[in-house]
Design goal:
Blueprint lengths: L2 H8 L3 H9 L7 E2 L5 E2 L2 H15 L4 H12 L9
Antiparallel strand pairs: 1-2
């Protein structure tokens, strides 16, 4: 899906999705032949996690730390 569809699906503006990419909360998206960013359902899940974590009071730095632990293949439960 393209960034507009992703943003609509999770209820965020496209500029917020791009901000999360720059902040290291989202992996670098694949690019279509025309240079457009393309996303999959894993990105939807991650954005939902970010939004839920923010609602629970976590900072973006704390969320990034949890995501880094999870991306390294470790369960973040003890960290959280």
């Amino acid at each position: 899906m393209l960034i507009g569809e992703l943003a609509h699906t999770v209820g965020l503006p496209t500029r917020t999705v791009r901000f999360y990419e720059r902040a290291g909360l989202l992996p670098e998206p694949d690019r279509a032949a025309n240079g457009y960013r393309t996303y999959n359902d894993d990105t939807v899940t991650r954005l939902q996690f970010i939004r839920t974590s923010q609602a629970a009071g976590f900072t973006l730095a704390e969320i990034r730390s949890i995501i880094d632990i999870r991306d390294a293949g470790q369960p973040p439960c003890t960290h959280v």
